[in-house]
């Protein structure tokens, strides 16, 4: 794309630039009141955010039989040794208040006849604790409410139709805003004292994903090149039950179906999960994903059988999944649902403390693009929406609780947009899936790194290529199998569990 006009906008002193309009970004923006907040988003609507696609719900210890201690314990266990226990405690302890806050904002959580939250069971949870909204539409309904509240808030202003392409810095290494571009190629340099990345994950870097294709790790690339530290980048979660009907992105069959009793069978009609894990269908996601992948490799197409568990209740209890199936000519009330693993969530991201602060002055990160240490090697089901609210809220508290120095960006220069184009993008996605998927090894990862370098020679250091390179390099460096990271050349888990940290200059 040719260079367009360049304008600059200096945000008022002490105001906040939020890059991204998913749940984490919008919740933080609301909690910053009355501080002025500018939300930068390329979308005219937030329905394209990954938050809006979340089906299962939001996990929290809301029942009398449950406890924050139990939720934290399950979170730590699912994370396969890499969850920070204190961070898990914060998530589980503060979680119920955040859910109640969402209800106060207007989220219509499903309730029983007594007016109590309807709580469902999902994999690796010891108790039912997942609050749902209209069956399997939690993400969409929560985002709908958050957008409405943000539009009503006097302190929130949208910078709509702009996509951030790089971060601005001053002469002292602090982040001082972002450079954005619109569809016409015009450039906008936004100077800000406080910049918060809330752009979501990396699913769009892979050929098979349940995420929006635009979720390509742009925030990670932008932050990495200015010196931000990255954490646990190798840990990518594959959702075991994407609906295998050839669509891109792949529609999702929520884990709540298995929580309600749906089972996994293969083409021979055999229920196979008990052969792979003692918890069967409710084993941790990485175990279920690898089991399904093994069935596919063996030529035994896997299916999700919901006929007995859900049956004729499907349209009312799981309308999103029902519609996806019916649109492909599959009636899940009477037919099996073909499934396959798909990239669903990234446990890694910009390394932050419990308040979202990165290693760079003026730069915070919340939501999926951050890595606070709460997911470890494998995220516990339905902890993602909870993380967005708990740590989005804590970031708001941190910002409001301290004095911020005024930051002036250095000279803002026009620069060509490093667009990868559809052919380069698909080449990257295919290479990531083939070489950094459910099963990895050194040969595949080295091939991937060489492929990424070749693409960089063609188009330059585009943000998705930077993010992909860091993921691949981190996966190559971790010579063990742990959580969502499985190496068929290093199948054992090491005795010592250690998070990985990397900066971009370590790769040059």
Description:
There is one protein chain. With 508 residues, the protein is α/β, with parallel strands linked by helices. It has three domains: 6-234 and 347-400, FAD/NAD(P)-binding domain; 236-341, Alpha-Beta Complex (Flavocytochrome C3, Chain A, domain 1); 421-506, Methane Monooxygenase Hydroxylase, Chain G, domain 1 (Up-down Bundle). It contains 14 helices and 20 strands. The strands form five sheets. It has a five-stranded parallel β-sheet, covered by helices on one side. Strands 1-10-9-8 form a four-stranded mixed β-sheet, with helices on one face. It has a four-stranded mixed β-sheet with strand order 19-17-12-20, with helices on one face. Strand 2 (16-19), helix 1 (23-31) and strand 3 (37-41) form a beta-alpha-beta unit. Helix 1 packs parallel to helix 11, helix 3 (85-105) crosses helix 11 and helix 13 packs antiparallel against helix 14 (463-477). The radius of gyration is 22 Å and the shape is globular.
Mean pLDDT: 93
Our count of domains comes out at 3
Report the count of strand segments: 20
Q: Would you identify the CATH H-level superfamily of the largest domain?
A: FAD/NAD(P)-binding domain
| Computed Rg | 22 Å
Which overall shape is indicated by the principal axes computed on the Cα atoms?
A: globular
CATH A-level architecture of the largest domain: 3-Layer(bba) Sandwich
Strand content: 15-25%
Which structural class best describes the helix and strand composition? alpha/beta
Main beta sheet: 5 strands, parallel
- Per DSSP, the total helix count is 14
CATH topology of the largest domain: FAD/NAD(P)-binding domain
Distance between the termini: 27 Å
Ranges where pLDDT stays below 50 over 5 or more residues in a row are none
Strand order of the largest sheet: 7-3-2-11-18
The helix fraction, in percent, is 25-40%
CATH class of the largest domain: Alpha Beta
């Amino acid at each position: 794309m040719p260079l367009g006009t360049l304008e600059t906008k200096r945000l008022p002193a002490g105001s906040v630039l939020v890059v991204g309009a998913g749940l984490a970004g919008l919740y933080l923006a609301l909690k910053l009141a009355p501080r002025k907040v500018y939300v930068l988003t390329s979308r005219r609507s937030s329905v394209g955010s990954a938050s809006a696609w979340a089906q299962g719900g939001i996990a929290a210890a809301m029942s009398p039989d449950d406890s924050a201690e139990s939720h934290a314990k399950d979170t730590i266990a699912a994370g396969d040794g890499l969850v920070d226990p204190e961070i898990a405690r914060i998530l589980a302890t503060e979680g119920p208040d955040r859910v109640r806050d969402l209800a106060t904002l207007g989220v219509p959580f499903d309730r029983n006849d007594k007016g109590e939250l309807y709580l469902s069971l999902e994999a690796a949870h010891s108790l039912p604790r997942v609050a749902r909204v209209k069956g399997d539409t939690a993400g969409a309904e929560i985002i709908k409410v958050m957008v409405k509240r943000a539009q009503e808030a006097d302190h929130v202003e949208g910078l709509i139709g702009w996509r951030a392409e790089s971060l601005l810095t001053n002469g002292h290494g602090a982040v001082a805003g972002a450079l954005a571009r619109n569809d016409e190629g015009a450039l906008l340099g936004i100077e800000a004292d406080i910049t918060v990345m809330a752009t979501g994950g990396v699913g769009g870097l892979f050929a098979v994903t349940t995420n929006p294709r635009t979720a390509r790790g742009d925030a990670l690339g932008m932050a990495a090149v200015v010196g931000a530290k990255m954490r646990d980048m190798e840990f990518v979660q594959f959702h075991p039950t994407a609906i295998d009907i050839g669509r891109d992105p792949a529609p999702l069959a929520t884990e709540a179906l298995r929580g309600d009793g749906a089972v996994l069978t293969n083409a021979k009609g055999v229920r196979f999960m008990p052969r792979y894990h003692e918890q069967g269908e409710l084993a941790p996601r990485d175990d279920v994903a690898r089991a399904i992948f093994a069935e596919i490799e063996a030529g035994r197409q896997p299916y999700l059988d919901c006929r007995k568990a859900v049956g004729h209740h499907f349209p009312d209890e799981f309308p999103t999944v029902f519609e996806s199936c019916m649109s492909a000519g599959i009636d899940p009330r009477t037919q099996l649902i073909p499934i396959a693993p798909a990239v669903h969530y990234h446990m890694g991201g910009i390394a932050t403390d419990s308040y979202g602060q990165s290693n760079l002055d003026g730069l915070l990160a919340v939501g999926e693009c951050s890595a606070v240490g709460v997911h470890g090697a494998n995220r516990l089901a339905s902890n993602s929406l909870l993380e967005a609210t708990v740590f989005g809220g804590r970031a708001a508290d941190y910002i409001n609780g301290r004095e911020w120095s005024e930051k002036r960006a250095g000279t803002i220069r026009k620069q060509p947009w490093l667009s990868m184009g559809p052919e380069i993008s698909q080449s990257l996605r295919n290479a990531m899936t083939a070489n950094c998927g459910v099963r990895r090894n050194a040969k595949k990862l080295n091939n991937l790194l060489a492929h990424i370098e070749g693409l960089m020679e063609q188009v330059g250091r585009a943000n998705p290529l930077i993010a992909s390179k860091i993921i691949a390099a981190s996966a190559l460096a971790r010579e063990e199998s742990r959580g969502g990271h499985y190496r068929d050349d290093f199948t054992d888990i090491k005795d010592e569990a250690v998070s990985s940290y990397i900066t971009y200059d370590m790769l040059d």
